[in-house]
Amino acid sequence: MKKLIIYSLSAFALLTISYSCSEDFLDAKPTEFLTSEQIQEASANNPDVIAGSMKGIYTLMFETGTGGTNLDHDDFGQKGYDIYSDMLSGDIALSISTYGWYRTGITEFQATTDYTNIANYKVWRYYYRLIRSANSVIDALGGNDITPELDANKHIMGQAKTMRAYCYFYLTQFFQESYNPDELILPIYTDALSPNQPKSTSKEVYDLIIKDLTESITLLETFNRSAKNEVNKSVAQAFLAYTYGAMGGTENYKKAKDLAASVINTGGYTLMSADEIAYTGAGDEIGGFNDVNTAGWMWGVDLTSDNGLDLVSWWGQMDAYTYSYQWAGDRKAIDAGLYAKIPADDARKKQFHPTTTSSYYLVPLNKFYDPARKIGGQRTVITDYLYMRVAEMYLLHAEAASKSGDDGAARTSLKALLSLRIPNTSYVDGLSGQALQDEIYLQTRIELWGEGKSYLAMKRNKATITRGSNHLSNVGVAISYDDDRLTFEIPQSEVQNNPFID
Question: Rounded distance, CA 278 to CA 336, Å?
């Protein structure tokens, strides 16, 4: 149990968070989102109505203020919490801090050791808001145990259950140090009208995630999505693979391995090439992580000027070629120790600025960037958000295969990825057991740097990371995956408004 540090009440402490009572969860925005009663009335004969409601749920993923603030500049949906998690793992270093975002709360762990800190509220509120939205759709389609008759509504049910599972999965990662089936961790809500609930055990939460995703995989079997912002069968399979990987154990790793293999073999995605993963010079129009149409991206969103994103966005925090904090003086760089482990002939080395005398040292100038490449240039964000790509499944397949005793399959998957990054992968053939697993984990950190996956991998691999020389705090400090400072507290507002939680 963490020691709770109590400060005087501030404005944010007065915000309510109760799942069933808080007005925050009844926010009419986005306009595409309808009440469950409106959806139910129209959906039987007009699936387009409920499809519009799902569109509203996807919009919440990148809308500003969904963490409940008005308006913190780190409150912009899933990509904001990807930054939180990569900083907590230590792989993103805050190397210069001018404006203070992330410094005390995240990199110095004040948020994760003080339940009155607003960051706890943002994480909690965002995921539970999406859960309530998904539950409204599920309720309108008949409830958790109903399979809709219309194929269009089956597809909506599959998407809604996948989104609910996605939220509960991330809540387990942010609010539990490691999988312990008997630990009470989170309240579960499976319909939009549930009153306040007590905390459920980790096993109960994971059972719901597994049930939702297993059903979604079937419901989405014939779904052909119109855009990558929608979840499909492959995304549901990937989250189920992540779930089994987080639980651990030989049998769960076998399930994770099979699910990841299914995505690789049947999803229709291709690994990003060496040319695609980094800007290599003038005239390079294909490098970088800025276009949802990239074949290796499984899930993401095509942002346009109509979305109205600007400084308060992932690009506004991470890209020096956007009017951003990255440009103006809050530098986010790869951990120096991790960078040193990337070989000179690895294509991914080019993603980071190498000049030690520059304030942009180790900043990902050539991985995440507006294609116009004008420092501080992009004012209205139209570069796209990445949520998931197929490289994750190659790496998770390799990890799960090795941990379930199939080192041969693990080496094959790892080499498939590395053959597109380095000129010689033969060293992998000599690895097995823990040495192979250590290499897979290292390659996961390198390949997926800045994409919000290092924290998940750190927990799965029960790793300890020592912060490198370019961090502003905790330099040289070894921090274990289960360190109390790496997980969030249930926020004060939930404790105050839910009588079942103390």
Answer: 19
Q: Is position 345 within any domain?
A: no
Taking residue 171's Cβ as centre, other Cβ atoms within 10 Å add up to 22
Torsion on CA atoms 97, 100, 101, 107, rounded to nearest 10: 70
Domain assignment present for residue 421? The answer is no
pLDDT in tens, 157-203: 999 999 999 999 999 999 999 999 999 999 999 999 999 999 999 99
358 lies in some domain: no
Query: What is the average pLDDT score of the chain?
Result: 91
Q: Which of 99, 114, 29, 28 is nearest to 312 (CA)?
A: 99
Q: Which domain holds residue 213?
A: 11-269+444-497
d(CA 66, CA 309): 13
**185 Cβ contact list (under 8 Å, min separation 6):** 172, 175, 176, 199, 200, 201, 202, 205
* DSSP track, 217-231: HHHTTT---SSTTS-
Is the pLDDT at 275 greater than 70? The verdict is: yes
Residue with tokens 């404790």: 495
Say which CATH number the domain at 38 has: 1.25.40.390
- Beta-bridged to residue 334, according to DSSP, are 92
Cα–Cα distance between 358 and 353 in angstroms, integer? 8
Cα separation of 138 and 167, whole Å?
15
Question: Phi and psi dihedrals of 249, rounded to 5?
Answer: 95, 145
Structure tokens at 42: 């129209």
Check pLDDT > 60 for residue 467: yes
Q: Render pLDDT for 293-318 as a digit per residue (tens, 0 to 9).
A: 999 999 999 999 999 999 999 999 99
Q: How many independent structural domains does the chain possess? A: 1
Q: Token pair of 44, please? A: 């039987």
Q: What share of the chain is helix, strand, coil (3-state, %, to 5)?
A: 45, 5, 45
326 contacts 363 by C-beta, under 8 angstroms: yes
Return the percentage of the chain with pLDDT > 90, whole number.
87
